[in-house]
Amino acid sequence: MTTHAFNDTNVMLGRSLKHVTRSVDTIITVTIMPIAFLLLFRYVFGGAIEANTDNYVNYLMPGVLLIAIASGISYTGFRLFNDMQNGIFERFHSMPITRSSVLWGHVLTSLVANAISVAVIVGVGLIIGFRTSAGVLAWLAVAGILALFTLALTWIAVLAGLSASTPDGASAFSYPIVFLPFVSSAFVPTETMPGPVRAFAENQPVTSIVDSTRALLDGQPVGSDVWLALGWCAGIGIVAYVFAVLAYRRKVR
C-alpha cells in the first residue's frame, strides 16, 4: 500500500470510528448480548452442564468472544449499506482518493471496534472467575486468531452491505454466524452431541477456532486445531474478499 493509499485509509478509518462512537446503542448492543450469554451460562446453565472442567467460565470464554465478534460485524454491513444508499461513495470517488480506502476504512473500524468489545468481555470474565495461565506469546496468538476471524467475517459483512437491497438484509447475514458457536464445542463437548449434530459440530470452523483459543488460554498444547483454525479463517477471508471486491467494482464503475 502506497503512502497516499495509507493516508486515505487512515482518514476513512477516522471517519468510521467517529460514527461508531456517536452510536452508543450500537456499542451497548455489541457488548451487552455476549456478556448476557456469559452470565447466563455461568450462573443459570453452568451447574447443569458437564464440560469436564473445574472452571466453566474458562470453557465458555472463547465461544462468547466469537459470538461478540459475529454480532459486531453485522454493523459493518449496515454502515456500508447506508453509505451506498446516501451517495457517500460517489462523493468520495469524485475526490482524488484511493478507491480501496473506502472499504478498508470500514474493515479496520470493524477490527478496532471488535477488539474493544473483546477486551470488555474479557474484563467481565475476570470479574466472574475467568483465569488463564497463558503467557504473552499465547495471548498474542489468541489475538491473532481472533483478528483473522474478525477480518474473515468483516469481508462477508462488506459483501452483504454491497449486495443487500434493505438495511435489514445488510445485517441479517450475521444471524446464522452468531448461531454457529451453539453447535460447536463452545458450550459443551462435542462428544455429548447426537451423531449427525456432532459430525457437523466437529467439522465447522468455529469448533477449531474455539478449541485452539481455549488451549492457548489454558496453557495447553494446541495440536492441529490451530492450523485448522487459521486455514478456515484464511480461506473464508480470501473468498469473501474476492467477491466483495468484485461487488464493489460493479457498484462504483
Task: Please outline what is shown here.
With 253 residues, this protein is mostly helical. The chain is built from 11 helices and no strands.
Any descriptors?
11 helices; 253 residues; elongated; transport; transmembrane; mainly alpha; membrane; Nod_factor_ABC_transporter; ABC2_TM_bact-type
Describe this entry's structure for a reader.
InterPro entries: ABC2_TM, ABC2_TM_bact-type, ABC_2_transport, Nod_factor_ABC_transporter. Belongs to the ABC-2 integral membrane protein family. Its main location: membrane. The protein has 253 residues and is an all-alpha fold. 77% of the residues lie in helices and 0% in strands. The chain is built from 11 helices and no strands. The chain starts with a helix and ends with a helix. The mean pLDDT is 83.
Task: Break the fold down into its secondary structure elements and pairings.
Layout: H1 3-22, H2 24-45, H3 56-85, H4 88-93, H5 100-127, H6 136-163, H7 167-172, H8 174-179, H9 195-202, H10 205-217, H11 225-252
Helix pairs in contact: 1-5, 2-3, 2-5, 3-5, 3-6, 3-10, 5-6, 6-10, 6-11, 10-11
What is the helical fraction, as a range of percent?
A: over 70%
Question: Which spans have pLDDT < 50 for at least 5 consecutive residues?
Answer: none
The biggest beta sheet reads: none
Distance between the termini: 22 Å
- The tally of helices reads 11
Mean pLDDT: 83
Fraction of residues in β-strands: under 5%
Question: Which structural class should the secondary elements be placed in?
Answer: mainly alpha
Q: How many individual β-strands? A: 0
Radius of gyration: 19 Å
List the secondary-structure elements in sequence, H or E. HHHHHHHHHHH
From the spread of the alpha carbons, the general shape counts as elongated
Q: State the domain count.
A: 1
Membrane topology: Multi-pass membrane protein
Keywords: Antibiotic resistance, Cell membrane, Membrane, Transmembrane, Transmembrane helix, Transport
Pfam family, one: ABC2_membrane
Main location: membrane
